[in-house]
Amino acid sequence: MTLLIIVQMVLGEPGETIAAVFARLYEQYLPKVYRFIRFRIEDDATAEDLTSAVFEKALTRFHSYQSQRASFSTWVFVIARNTVIDHFRVSHRDRLVELDGDGPAHPAGPSPEEQAIRQEEFGRLQTCLKQLPAAQQSVISLKFGAHMTNREIARTTGMSESQVGNIVFRAVRRLRDDFRGWRDE
Amino acid sequence: MSREGERSRLFSEQVDRILTGGPAAVPGGADDDFRTALDFARDMAAMTPGPRAGFATALGGRLRTQTVELEEKARLKPRQAWWRRLADRPAWLVTAAALFVVAVGALVWASGLFQPAAVPGIISASASVGRTLYSTSDPVVVTFVLKNTTDEPVYVGKLPPVWSVMDASTHRPVYTSSEGEQSVLLEPGESRTYAGTWWPHSEGVGSYYIELEDLTGREGQPIKLTLSKAVRFEVRE
Question: Which of B53, B67, B237 sits opposite A78 (nearest CB)?
Fold first, then answer.
């Protein structure tokens, strides 16, 4: 049985081609994967490269995906987390936040001034996020980037659901305090 | 559940509502700390950028091309027997013959016919890992102890030893460390300890075991290393 048939049986509707199955998953998960990565990565170009790497790995590893062991969401975000970890192990440089030039697609604020402010604010948020322990950074990125529930985060990270909840509450309060300190400067 | 645990649970519930675009409600009796944290969570959700349209389209196009290529390869799976395809291509025949000669030569070489005999047992080797079960994001730290078991000093080159993580199902290495550059004269009974780290996530879940390569003596002769006890572990998601 080829991997293509396996993918179709696991994730597709009857009669759906592999290209259609993957296109549907791509549409559904691209924003979440990108936002999750963008939370941890300071520049757009690297975030895009890593997002591309995640989906290319997902495509080539379909043969190892077992739906009875994990949901597709859990599976693809394990790949995403590992991709980010690999990136940090290889690249030890901190990149400066790029305030000029073609910025990312922010959900609101059409004017250039508002976009610049949001970009600066997000850059500051990332700086505050980097002060948190690695486990908290990971949980916050999965929550606010990938929009995962605590249960999904627990399955992806191996933590308990209550641990995840405690981390979210604690980390957001710390980020609020650090961020507020910057705003008041 | 403790009071703090309950607050954490309620907080996450409200954050999930914010993230799905719904209205968040501050529970009755919630203090200022809770309320301002929820306000900040709302700000964080608004700050987070999404992917550029151009990037999304370009990546989608590349992935579509790759999936179509995969489908095409599966559809055009050749029906002709491999030996017939080989016989129809003289260049492939010559290449296959050359590979056969190289393979036979490699087998003869590996049999040790032309190599100085490995000196067994003069260096004992043991290895250990922290636990037998890891997740794909955990580092696997392997500790090796090498000991001179003889009454004479033993020269050992190229330390630390080269070690491999072997896939238990395929018996092929998924990771091999680099060759060491240290030369050491081990006194009788002296032992040295080394540690190495393997990150399994790029290889994924599975069962693995550790193997060590032989060391090198002063004359270039191999010094056989056999682990006193097999080191096995599993990686799960």
Answer: B237
